[in-house]
Amino acid sequence: MPTAAHPAEPVALRVDADRGRFTGSSERYEKRLGDLAGLYRSTQAFESALATDDGEPVYWVESSTPDTGRGALTIGLSVLRPGRIGDEFAMTRGHLHAQSEFAELYHGISGSGVMLLESVEGESRAVPIGPGISVHVPGGWVHRSVNVGEELLVTLFAYATEAGQDYGIIERAGGMSRLVVSDGAGGWTTRANPDHGGYRA
Question: What's the rounded Cα separation, in Å, for the pair 130 and 113?
Fold first, then answer.
């Protein structure tokens, strides 16, 4: 256990964007399609995709948290496979930090994506992210990654470890207020989600 007299050891982290791996990480979690029931609006499209699913993770996170005390930083790699369910692009569950005032930084490594951000007061932003693009997510913004390309979307993220995550806030709201969908011409756009009922703690 790190202490003031014996702080945590420095860690060298290497990103392998082609494989979506983070050498030097200490934690990994995966989400398969079956874990994401209720995430997409079209139940029929989801069930159809599930029937032909290969069982491989649709996204995963590898992270390094060498210390958990005040001031500690969690750094990780988020990797999201491409695909669509109905006209919605592949996405992560998304979250707001449990201590909502904490910010997060995402940096695009490879692929083409959108950071969908919504304030608890109802504002919405869809910010493109890709290689060399960083997105600052201020405190108070619910956020999720969406893969709008044909390759793995790989982003590096960093946040204060003590921030924590509230993964249930989107589910309790009936989804985010905007959906990232195909524009019918090879690109993406957003449209209103009629199921969204507002964010509550």
Answer: 6
Q: Which residues pair with 15 in a beta bridge?
A: 22
Tell whether domain 14-192 is in CATH 1.20.5.320: no
Chain segment 74-88, per-residue pLDDT in tens: 999 999 999 999 999
Structure tokens at 37: 């029931």
3-state secondary structure of 123: coil
The answer to whether residue 120 scores a pLDDT higher than 80 is yes
Q: What is the pTM of this model?
A: 0.93
pLDDT in tens, 128-182: 999 999 999 999 999 999 999 999 999 999 999 999 999 999 999 999 999 999 9
Give the integer Cα–Cα distance in Å for 75 and 72. Answer: 10
Domain range summary for the chain, segments of one domain joined by +:
14-192
Q: Which amino acid appears at position 137 of this protein?
A: V
> 126 burial class (0-12, 13-18, 19+ CB within 10 angstroms)?
middle
End-to-end CA distance of the chain: 33
Token pair 């692929």 in the structure block, residue: 111
Kindly write down the DSSP assignment for every residue of 98-122, as one continuous string.
Answer: SSTT--EEEEEEES-EEEEEEETTS
Residues 27/68, Cβ–Cβ less than 8 Å: no
Three-class SS of residue 19?
A: coil
Q: Which residues pair with 146 in a beta bridge?
A: 91, 114
